[in-house]
Write a structure and sequence with these properties.
Layout (H helix, E strand, L loop, with lengths): L3 E3 L2 E7 L2 E7 L2 E6 L4 E5 L6 E6 L7 E3 L5 E5 L4 E6 L2 E7 L8 E6 L5 E5 L12 E7 L5 E9 L1 E6 L5 E6 L4 E7 L5 E9 L1 H4 L1 H5 L8 E6 L5 E5 L4 E5 L5 E6 L3 E8 L5 E8 L6 H6 L4 E8 L10
Parallel strand pairs: 1-22
Antiparallel strand pairs: 2-25, 3-4, 4-5, 5-6, 7-8, 8-9, 9-10, 11-12, 12-13, 13-14, 15-16, 16-17, 17-18, 19-20, 20-21, 21-22, 23-24, 24-25
Length: about 300
């Protein structure tokens, strides 16, 4: 059966490079990476407000059980905690991290799973395998999984027993079992981009951004994935079939479910000048980020984020 086509409506613009949208307590939070700012966005009007400026660039974010925001500082490998107007250092990963802080997710025990991209691509390095870090509530850092080629979007099932992570330059979605102590095992490739767009398109040297960036899960265990250079978001059923798709003009970078009923899908698109290298355009601030929305039938549920 062909995927159901959905359209989307603009909500906000004025970002350099939007990433890691999160809906919490009636607001959308978003990192403007190269704009070095975390904003809140009113989900009805699209009005943006500055929450914090992050000198070393923000990326992934998550909300702890107490409602505090944990956000990343990419270039110096740190996590910070924001609560009641105060910003405090949450964890320092500089002894372990070889790339940048990417996306992140937090479980109910307070363990943060944090991407280490493996390569500092905005500083001229070529993509190479990275890893997942597990940061405990006391700030201690462990390596949870290795040999992931640019880990990106990451999310946990509602029961906390399964973790998915996008492998952007591995062009697939990995799946891990999560033990009661938070350790990861039984790595599997759950889905591959080539199964959707074809081997030739993924393998074309000119199409280097065909991988998955961000993602989220819904109440039925479906997964919304942001397919960068494919310029689409797709929803996978729990058995890996594409049930819905949303087209955009530009890179489909990230998405999250929210709104009062959890059935608003917030979509982040980033564009750059035609023919320009993505990472060079990001550094030069020649990219433009926008947020749009669509309504879906299946809402957020208990999955994270």
């Amino acid at each position: 059966m062909a995927p159901i086509e959905l359209t989307h409506e603009p909500l906000a613009d004025g970002l350099y490079f939007g990433e890691s949208p999160r809906y919490h307590d009636g607001k959308l939070y978003i990192s403007d990476m190269t704009g070095r700012t975390i904003y809140t966005i009113d989900p009805q009007s699209g009005h943006k407000e500055v929450l914090v400026e992050v000198e070393h660039q923000p990326n992934g974010m998550c909300f702890a059980e107490d409602g505090s925001l944990i956000y990343s500082s990419m270039f110096n490998a740190q996590l910070w905690k924001y609560k009641d107007g105060e910003h405090t250092l949450y964890a320092d990963m500089s002894d372990v991290m070889t790339g940048y802080c990417g996306d992140m997710v937090i479980d109910r025990s307070g363990t943060v799973y944090q991407d280490d991209t493996g390569a500092r691509v905005l500083h001229g390095e070529q993509p190479r395998p990275g890893k997942l870090l597990a940061i405990k509530p006391d700030g201690s850092v462990e390596v949870a999984a290795e040999n992931i080629i640019f880990p990106n979007g990451i999310f946990l099932t509602g029961d906390g027993k399964t973790l998915y992570v996008a492998e952007t330059f591995g062009y697939g979605l990995l799946k891990y079992d999560v033990a009661p102590d938070g350790s990861l095992s039984n790595r599997q490739q759950f889905w591959a981009v080539k199964d959707y767009v074809g081997e030739e398109r993924v393998g074309d040297a000119r199409q280097t951004m065909m991988g998955i960036d961000g993602g989220c899960m819904d109440a039925e265990g479906g997964m919304w994935l942001s397919l960068l250079g494919v310029e689409e978001w797709v929803r996978l059923s729990p058995d890996g079939e594409v049930t819905h798709r949303i087209k955009t003009k530009g890179h489909a970078v990230a998405c999250t479910l929210g709104g009062e009923d959890g059935k608003t899908l917030f979509l982040v698109t980033n564009t750059l000048p035609e023919g320009e290298n993505l990472f060079a355009a990001m550094v030069a601030k020649r990219t433009k980020g926008t947020v749009s929305t669509t309504r879906v039938d299946v809402g957020h549920g208990d999955a994270r984020p």
